[in-house]
TrEMBL record:
<feature type="domain" description="Knr4/Smi1-like">
    <location>
        <begin position="56"/>
        <end position="163"/>
    </location>
</feature>
<feature type="region of interest" description="Disordered">
    <location>
        <begin position="1"/>
        <end position="26"/>
    </location>
</feature>
<protein>
    <recommendedName>
        <fullName>Knr4/Smi1-like domain-containing protein</fullName>
    </recommendedName>
</protein>
<dbReference type="InterPro" id="IPR037883">
    <property type="entry name" value="Knr4/Smi1-like_sf"/>
</dbReference>
<dbReference type="Pfam" id="PF09346">
    <property type="entry name" value="SMI1_KNR4"/>
</dbReference>
<dbReference type="InterPro" id="IPR018958">
    <property type="entry name" value="Knr4/Smi1-like_dom"/>
</dbReference>
Length: 186
């Protein structure tokens, strides 16, 4: 694994990186790609103990994290932050009751994404790190994260789970354990 500094120095310009925002999309874009989640994810500022909660993220939060990592976030991740924020998605669409969950299923906030990408917090950084071009965004368990690689949702150093963030989130809303079941992790 290369160091965080090497990753940033060798990071291609956003326009040449597949899956990364080229700057054409604005933070205030009217696209409502992820708004379907608002019906199953409660505002976490009012009900943080609910299994599906979301916490607001500001444009300043997003831009600050992007400056830290030296690149804009991938377009779909930026839209997710703008429309949903961060939070937990543990129960399927049809089940909004509280149950005992043994998995985290947490969408990181922009600052946490930057911390992990840069390796700034060894308490949460996985021992194997991340490969060049991988951007952690989703916590499964203790020091275990899914990453965006070329716009696809992937296991770190491994297989593609979904072709893009929207496909991942849509499947997750229907079955929050689909990525476990698909890879025999049950």
């Amino acid at each position: 694994m290369s160091s965080s500094n090497r990753r940033l120095e060798s990071a291609p310009a956003p326009s040449s990186k597949p899956g990364w925002n080229t700057g054409e999309d604005r933070l205030t874009n009217g696209n409502h790609m992820f708004h379907f989640l608002t019906s199953i994810m409660r505002d976490g500022t009012g009900e943080p103990d609910f299994p599906n909660v979301r916490f607001p993220v500001t444009a300043e939060d997003i831009e600050s994290a992007e400056r830290r990592i030296g690149n804009p976030f991938p377009e779909q991740l930026r839209k997710f932050f703008c429309q949903i924020g961060s939070g937990f998605l543990k129960a399927p669409q049809s089940d909004t009751s509280r149950t005992d969950f043994k998995y985290i299923n947490r969408f990181l906030d922009p600052d946490e994404v930057a911390e992990l990408f840069l390796g700034e917090d060894e308490d949460i950084f996985p021992s194997e790190g991340f490969d060049d071009g991988e951007l952690p965004f989703f916590e499964i368990g203790d020091r275990l994260y899914l990453v965006l690689r070329d716009g696809q949702v992937c296991w770190p150093f491994g297989d593609v789970i979904s072709q893009n963030l929207l496909a991942f989130v849509t499947e997750l809303a229907n079955n929050p354990r689909f990525y476990h079941e698909a890879y025999g992790l049950e």
